[in-house]
Amino acid sequence: MNNEILKTKTLLVIAVTLITMVAEISFGIITKSMALTADGFHMGTHALALFITFLVCLVIAKYKDKEDILNALGGYTSALFLGATSIGIIYESISRFINPQSISFNEAILVTVIGLIVNIICILIMSDNHGHNHLHNHNHEPEHEHKENLNFKAAYLHILADALTSVMAILALLCGKYFGWVFFDPLIGMVGGLIILKWSIDLIKSSFNILIGTPCSKKA
User: Fold this and answer.
1) Which of 57, 60, 72, 84 has the most CB atoms around its CB within 10 Å?
2) Among 38-42, 54-58, 171-175, 195-199, which stretch is predicted with the lowest mean pLDDT?
3) 180 — alpha (psi -120 to 50), left (phi > 0) or beta?
4) Comparing C-alpha atoms, which of 39, 187, 23, 190 is closest to residue 107?
5) Mean pLDDT over residues 28-53, rounded?
6) Domain 2-212 CATH (choose: 3.40.50.300, 2.60.120.10, 1.20.1510.10, 3.40.50.720)
7) What sign has the CA pseudo-torsion 135, 199, 160, 18?
8) Tell me, what's the pLDDT at 22?
9) Is the torsion defined by CA of 50, 52, 53, 57 positive or negative?
């Protein structure tokens, strides 16, 4: 039953995220805002991460004895996609430094605020799952108490990082509109890309250690 609730809420967040992603990328291209476009692409990566979480949940339901290794594999896969996206964001931001473009600030700020609101809603939805998932492990699988669910952690941190990127995008757009700091937009895009890259590297390391160093289902 817990797994069904997790799958239902995850699918709900995926649907909301995909709609917002399309809106942000579209308006980012129209308004020529790198921060907004970066936020939209990052929303896509966390939608993918949530989909990976959903798929892993389906597989774990059939292979409970492989839960730790499957969670680590889900987290590892999600982190790889996130890392690739962060490199793309950094590259595009650098290109905007070299070839700056005008930005329609009012439209970009509006859509970014909407994106942040969506992020907060997704955090509220998934944070309940986060705690529920740990409770499930503690009550029914005490042998896994010390294990982190890296699959779910990947999806959850995608959303948190996405909210952070939205806040940074709003800051960049406000500085550009009121102070004329147009350079701030690609700068924030680059900083956001580096933060995402750092997070992906950390998750890759922790999940890789489990995939390589932990003999699956051999520990009691």
Assistant:
1) 72
2) 38-42
3) left
4) 23
5) 77
6) 1.20.1510.10
7) negative
8) 87
9) positive
Confidence (pTM):
0.70
Closest by Cα among 30, 66, 23 to 47:
23
| 112, 170 Cβ separation under 8 angstroms | yes
* Structure tokens, 178: 């009121």
Confidence of residue 147 (pLDDT cuts 50, 70, 90): low
Q: Helices 150-179 and 184-213 meet at what angle, rounded to 10? A: 170
Structural domain boundaries in the chain: 2-212
CA 5 to chain CA mean position, Å = 20
The string of pLDDT tens digits covering residues 157-180 is 778 877 877 888 888 889 888 888
**Runs of H (alpha helix) within the chain:** 2-31, 34-62, 67-98, 105-140, 150-179, 184-213
189 contacts 34 by C-beta, under 8 angstroms: yes
Residue 135 in this model has a pLDDT that exceeds 60 = no
Which has the closest alpha carbon to 78: 191, 154, 186, 26? Answer: 154
Residue 149 φ/ψ, nearest 5 degrees: -80, 90
Cα–Cα distance, 21 to 158 (Å, whole number) = 14
For residue 145, pLDDT beyond 50: no
